[in-house]
Design brief:
The complex is a heterodimer of chains A (278) and B (323). By secondary structure, chain A is mostly helical. Chain A is 79% helix and 0% strand. The longest helix of chain A has 41 residues. Chain A is flat and about 75 Å long. The model of chain A has no long low-confidence stretch (mean pLDDT 88). The chains are: A mainly alpha (278), B mainly alpha (323).
């Protein structure tokens, strides 16, 4: 009896593990296929999709880079860095104001900022186009910077605020006893203490901005202003027959965020978990 | 993205003076404690959101009652005409149906599928394997929907794609088809891609929720002779119920905001068969120059996401299972 159930248990474990590993292979294969196709020739691509590359044409990456991916990457880096910095600072200030400073209409402000969590970008799209046209910011990177920041502040504030609430009040009191102003307390005491959640929010915002498509597509046109997601669809429609170059471009867009995820996995998980279930 | 139960209870009852060494805070009256100067901390966030999130929301409602040609700039008040047209528009209903399909299939795979998967992963004894599998499953969620969409555009492609090639290799050649080129398969092909892209994210979150369950519960159940299946149903499942509820709402809310992958893979075609509210809104405004109508569709999206957000808030406010 005991041995039979033990045997079943072992068998179950083996089956589950085999299933999980098989699933992992199925999940990761499309990405491997993408990387391999990026170094194939067009003819190879159409002969046998499962074959390994013969030519290993690494110059596909150079071609992709010269066909605009280099520009798209530069724009993406610029917009991502700028909007991430803006979002995290504005959110950290707001979180500090909401948790550790007395402000009038505290509750109204809180609802206003966190209520932004439920606003879908599509809903605001039409008026935003009109607004940015009249501001003269249409087809301008400022539009993306402003929109990414505005739409990411609620979630980022939510995460940082939850973290700041858990910091003991004695910290501020000690600082104020020492004669530190609210501003100094923020920069020199509270902000350094929030480092773990700040890293999480920085990573999550990079991921969001790097991958955003709707605003990037609607608010920019022309190669110099386009970010990677929009640029890739252009690469596809303009040089539609040279598929390996498109694959190389996709790889250039995908690899930085995958590397970033593996490097900061711990912080990603913390941010994601706090965001949904805290 | 959610708001937790504590989120609405403002954090800032003025800190009670613990030490007599700070006479300032002792003499300060609660009313005076609200310094208007302190508003600077929240001002940037409030201004940004007010101008670029809330104001457009209100404007959108106004626009939905206009007939509006963006090129000539002419706007005419047409009352509820856009809404009447919307309710009589078969493509609007088709889009709504496609969003609903998106939601239902995503709940099956990304919520319940991911939950079972997370339970399987957390049941593994090797910590290293648990970490490796969670990370591999998450990788598609790290890349953009644009890259994922383009990638699956090629995978579904009849000439060079691996899907048809794989079916051929398995002797299922009868099933090969132009997945994105046919009205009856396009939306399902897109939804399938989206499951590949998103399930790892949900699995990761369920894993975190399962890890928060004290292991003593499982040990006690094992000692009492409770099998693994029953342990899943009587311990894991009830204790991740809150997470499940939240994930369902987040998933459904996301399903009604779908845009990127549909735009990249089919642009709503063929013959509008894979149109969703987001792409139909875009097409109505920016391709058909019918901005009033697009604003009406946006209002529909807003109402749907608002209802879902309210439900989400109610779930979050409920107390979690105590242990």
């Amino acid at each position: 009896m005991v041995t039979r159930s033990a045997l079943l248990l072992v068998l179950g474990r083996v089956l589950i593990k085999a299933f999980l590993v098989a699933l992992a292979v199925v999940v990761i294969y499309p990405l491997v296929w993408m990387l391999l196709n990026g170094v194939k020739s067009n003819a190879e691509l159409f002969s046998n999709p499962f074959a390994m590359p013969v030519a290993w044409k690494w110059d596909n990456y150079i071609t992709a880079w010269n066909r605009g991916v280099g520009n798209y990457l530069t724009t993406s880096v610029l917009v991502t860095v700028a909007s991430t910095i803006a979002t995290v600072f504005i959110s950290a200030w707001a979180a500090y104001g909401l948790t550790r400073v007395n402000i009038p209409f505290n509750r109204v402000v809180l609802i206003l900022i966190l209520g932004g969590l439920m606003l879908a970008p599509t809903v605001a799209l039409i008026p935003l186009v009109k607004m940015f046209q009249s501001l003269g910011l249409y087809n301008n990177l400022w539009a993306l910077l402003i929109l990414y920041t505005a739409f990411r502040v609620p979630f980022t504030t939510f995460l940082i605020r939850a973290y700041m609430m858990d910091l003991p009040a004695e910290v501020d009191e000690a600082a104020s006893v020492d004669g530190a102003s609210k501003a100094r307390t923020f920069w020199q005491v509270i902000l350094p203490m929030c480092k773990p959640i700040l890293v999480s929010t920085v990573l999550l915002n990079i991921l969001f901005t790097w991958n955003e498509y709707l605003f990037a597509m609607v608010f920019t046109s022309g190669g110099a202003l386009q970010t990677l997601p929009v640029g890739l669809t252009n690469l596809m429609s303009k040089h539609g027959t040279d598929y390996p170059v498109v694959f190389a471009g996709m790889a250039i867009a995908a690899i930085p965020v995958i590397v970033l995820f593996f490097a900061g996995q711990r912080y990603f998980i913390r941010g994601l978990a706090d965001g949904v279930g805290k | 993205m959610t708001v937790s139960d504590t989120a609405w209870k403002s954090a800032a009852p003025p800190p009670a003076p613990l030490s007599t060494k700070s006479p300032k805070s002792r003499t300060r009256k609660p009313v005076r404690a609200h310094g208007w100067r302190n508003v600077v901390w929240v001002l940037p966030a409030v201004l940004l959101l007010g101008l670029f999130a809330y104001l457009p929301l209100v404007q959108n409602l106004g626009f939905s009652f206009l007939k509006w040609d963006i090129y000539s700039g002419r706007q005419t008040f047409v009352g509820a005409d856009n809404y009447v047209r919307m309710f009589n528009d078969p493509i609007f209903w088709k889009s709504l149906l496609n969003n609903t399909l998106y939601a239902v299939i995503s709940i099956a795979f990304q919520v319940f599928g991911a939950m079972i998967l997370a339970a399987m992963i957390e049941g593994l004894r090797s910590q290293r394997w648990r970490g490796i599998l969670r990370a591999i499953y998450f990788v598609p969620s790290a890349i953009s929907l644009t890259v994922a969409g383009l990638l699956f555009y090629f995978i579904y492609e009849p000439e060079m794609g691996i899907l048809n090639a794989a079916l051929d290799a398995l002797g299922l050649g009868n099933f090969t088809q132009a997945w994105l080129g046919q009205e009856n398969t396009a939306i399902f092909a897109i939804i399938a891609m989206s499951q590949w892209q998103g399930f790892g994210y949900c699995t990761l979150l369920f894993s975190v929720a399962l890890q928060r369950i004290p292991s003593e519960l499982y040990e006690a159940a094992s000692i009492d002779g409770v099998g693994p299946f029953q342990r899943f149903f009587s311990i894991s499942l009830p204790l991740v119920r809150e997470m499940t509820g939240l994930m369902m709402i987040v998933t459904v809310s996301g399903a009604f905001q779908v845009f990127n992958e549909v735009m990249v893979m089919t642009s709503g075609g063929p013959n509008n068969s894979s149109q969703v509210l987001g792409t139909w809104l875009y097409r109505s405004g920016f391709v058909r120059n019918d901005f009033g109508y697009a604003a009406a569709v946006a209002t529909a999206v807003f109402i749907i996401t608002l209802v879902l957000a309210v439900i989400q808030l109610r779930i979050s406010k409920k107390r979690r299972v105590q242990w």
